[in-house]
Write a structure and sequence with these properties.
With 240 residues, the protein is mainly α. The protein contains five helices and four strands, in the order ααββββααα.
Length: 240
């Protein structure tokens, strides 16, 4: 009688049967099972991935739409305020808004300075492209820069305030147009429809005022350049 374990001890590792040679388990069948398992795992992973991707995209779309509504309401109000400032020349019923103790007329703002508190808005900023988010956040910086410039004009401008008022109108016309451009881009990005065209609109008024100031600046620059050229010609020709 062969003792238990004797046969196993007697057979060397080279003589032990390969698992592939075990009857009833062909190699092709085992490979099919492995491939099926891998394919099944891949399908599960892809299904999970695309499901989560769709959920994330839907959440982002909802967040973007909400952001668009909230931010556009603030932008539309801000654009309207900029249009009011762009029309403010410091007069009341066509007359200077004030008179000093010496009886001299002066011109002072009749509208408040527009503000835009972006940081206070509770929206998901990551739902829109970073370039657009930066553009929105840049508007308060433009306001700050404009106010610093206007302080400089006020200190060195004409005492009656006409130079200050003209600079104030021009700067806020520029900022208003920038805000209108950002609002248009934000509407496209978030799918919020455009405002219904009206007979008078703040945006249209701002663009018209901005074009006027551009043309005025170009005319002044041309006149300045012509004056310099004339002086140069006189210097070259010398006294008669």
């Amino acid at each position: 009688m062969i003792r238990d374990g004797f046969f196993a001890d007697a057979v060397t590792s080279d003589q032990r049967p390969d698992l592939c040679d075990i009857p009833g388990k062909p190699e092709g069948n085992r490979m099919s099972e492995i491939l099926a398992a891998v394919l099944g795992a891949l399908i599960v992973w892809l299904t999970t991935y695309f499901t989560e991707h769709r959920k994330a995209a839907a959440t982002k779309s909802r967040d973007a739409a909400f952001l668009g509504v909230v931010v556009l309401i603030h932008l539309d109000k801000f654009i309207s305020e900029c249009a009011t400032v762009a029309s403010d020349d410091g007069t009341v019923l066509g007359q200077a808004s004030g008179r000093d103790e010496n009886g001299e007329d002066y011109y002072a703002p009749q509208t408040h300075t527009p503000t835009l508190e972006i940081e206070e808005l509770k929206v998901e900023w990551r739902s829109i492209p970073p370039q657009l988010m930066y553009a929105v956040y840049s508007l308060p910086l433009k306001i700050r820069d404009a106010l610093e410039y206007l302080d400089h004009v006020s200190d060195g401008g004409w005492p009656d305030g006409t130079e200050y008022m003209a600079a104030r109108q021009e700067r806020f016309a520029q900022i208003g147009v920038a805000a209108a451009d950002i609002a248009q881009e934000l509407r496209v990005e978030t799918g919020i429809p455009a405002v219904i065209e009206r007979k008078w609109s703040a945006e249209k008024h701002l663009r018209e005022r901005n074009e006027f100031y551009k043309a005025q600046a170009e005319s002044q620059e041309a006149a300045h350049n012509e004056m310099l050229a004339s002086l140069k010609r006189e210097q070259i020709s010398g006294p008669n």
